[in-house]
Write a structure and sequence with these properties.
By secondary structure, the protein is mainly beta. The chain has three helices and 15 strands.
Length: 231
């Protein structure tokens, strides 16, 4: 970790990796899916960094808020930089939307500014962030203009086992290879059209999410669903 920034070394060789380049790939936003844990603490009542049990936030941030979060690998940023990330309430952050699908509606893409480091050790500093923008997943199709999503689900073709969860207007699709590499997609059905709102990709040294409003054709989606099994 640097004096005015944070960078975690690889656990295998203790070297600082090159900074992950976040490329939008024709989506509206790209950001961190993991590595950031939200609190409702103030600077005056922060737990010790050694404390493992503390209440993660259930409250989506609001534009203009200042919030305190704990960051971990693969987070790598310098004070003053801005970034996007995915906010999930506590239960779904730990267990996933498949266990707590009702929390999809209170999850959001959040644009943050890294304001200051409050305390730090080699594993998990507390930092303060300022909220620049918030897009709730349930409102993404109303905020972002739609565009063609053809081929955005092609990455699922490399996986043998594909899983799907249906919850109200939401479709959650996920696939992985023995926890080494994976992808997931969150699709919202609205007015007989299917909107790809979030697409996640993860591997050994990255865990990123894209956000947008990509229209997926019914034929393309049905082909993928036919090769999937329920979560």
């Amino acid at each position: 970790m640097y004096d005015n920034g944070i960078a975690f070394p690889y656990s295998t060789c203790n070297k600082i990796p090159d900074k992950l380049e976040l490329i939008k790939n024709n989506f509206e936003v790209v950001g961190f899916e993991a590595g950031i844990e939200w609190s409702d603490f103030q600077a005056s009542n922060l737990p010790s960094l050694d404390e493992k049990i503390w209440a993660r936030s259930n409250n989506p941030p609001l534009k203009g808020d200042r919030r305190i979060v704990m960051v971990r690998y693969p987070f790598q940023m310098t004070v003053g930089e801005s970034f996007w990330m995915l906010f999930m309430p506590a239960l779904s952050y730990f267990n996933g939307w498949k266990e707590h699908p009702s929390e999809i509606n209170s999850s959001a893409f959040v644009n943050c500014s890294f304001e200051q480091i409050l305390s730090r050790n080699d594993e998990c500093p507390w930092i303060e962030i300022r909220i620049l923008n918030v897009v709730l997943l349930k409102e993404a199709c109303d905020i972002w203009s739609d565009s063609n999503g053809s081929s955005h689900l092609d990455s699922f073709q490399m996986f043998r086992d594909i899983y799907v969860l249906h919850y109200n207007e939401w479709i959650l699709i996920s696939a992985s290879t023995e926890s080494d590499l994976g992808t997931w997609a969150l699709i919202k059905k609205k007015n007989e059209r299917h909107h790809l709102i979030a697409l996640g990709e993860w591997g050994f040294h990255y865990d990123i999410v894209y956000g947008g409003n990509k229209i997926i054709s019914k034929d393309e989606l049905n082909k993928l669903l036919r090769s999937s099994v329920p979560l």
